[in-house]
Each structure stands twice: as structure tokens, then as C-alpha cells.
Amino acid sequence: MRRDQMEHILRAAAAVTNERDFVVIGSQALLASLPELPPPLNQSMELDLYPPDNQAAADLIDGTIGELSPFDETFGYYGHGVAPETAILPSGWRTRTVIVENDNTGGARGICIGPLDLAIAKLAAGREKDISFVRAMIELGVITADSVLQLTEELDAHHRSRVRERLQLAIKNGTY
Fold first, then answer.
1. H-helix or E-strand containing 112?
2. Cα–Cα distance for residue pair 77/47, rounded to 1 Å
3. How far apart are CA 4 and CA 59, in angstroms?
4. What angle do CA 19, 23, 29 make, to 5 degrees?
5. Is pTM, for the whole model, over 0.85?
6. What's the pLDDT score for residue 176?
7. How is the chain split into domains, by residue range?
């Protein structure tokens, strides 16, 4: 996904939900910090988002601009309405968000989780594709393993342990 595609999805989500603010939690939240993502970080064609004050609107996003919708079929990318519980995030994630709001978003505002918080969420999810994504973030210098490790202190003990184990997998299988 490209930054202009993210902005288009934000604009479309605002149009169908009458909401202004959207929390962006998936891999493409990285577009807020790095408007031009290098491969393989740019592979996803979905933007995971939710309006923080209207959870029911996430279903509306899925139904109108979601996967296999006419929007997706027309543009080749889509919005995926999710719930706040979809991602396990460090307690201070809100202080590290990056805002996407400009003429291209049509009044919508993307409140995107920061790169380190994204890495934590990916490691907490623990799928191989998530661990590979974090490995690529480290290899490309977007984040450091030490910074991720420090941020695990903001997780409860159960998630802290799992994220640390998966971070070690990402590091062990990396090329650095």
C-alpha cells in the first residue's frame, strides 16, 4: 500500500461512517511514519482501522469499503474495520501515535500507532508473517530490537514474556 491509498481509505471511511477520527493499528500504520515503505513492508493492501468513539462503525467500514467490496474491486486495496482489542499494545501507545491528516484525507484523521508499538502488536499476534514483518523492520533500520525490548516493560507479564520470546525468534532468524 502507498500513502495516497491510505489517505483514500481514510477519506472513504469518513464518508461512510460520518466519523472523523480513525485509529490505524495494522502494518500499514507505518505509512504515517514512513510515507514510502520499502518492500517487504509495503505488501499489505488492507488498512486496519476503527473509529474510537463508534465501534459499530467498524462493521460499516467492512461492509462498504472492505475486502471484496466494490471499493476493493475498483481500487485493489481496502479498509478493514477492526476492534480496539484486535491489537495488544503497550500501555503508553497513545503518546506515540503519528497523525495522518491533510487535504487528501478530506477531513478524516488517521491516528496511527507508532513503529515500536506496531512491532509489539505484531510480536504479540505471533504469526510467522508478523514475526517476519518485525524482522524486516529491524533489518531496514526502522526500529531496533533493543527499543522493542525496552517497550515490553509496558505490557502485562504474560504478554511481555511472549513478545520477548518472539522478538528473540525474529532476531535469531535475521541476517544481522
1. strand 109-112
2. 8
3. 23
4. 130
5. yes
6. 41
7. 3-114, 116-172
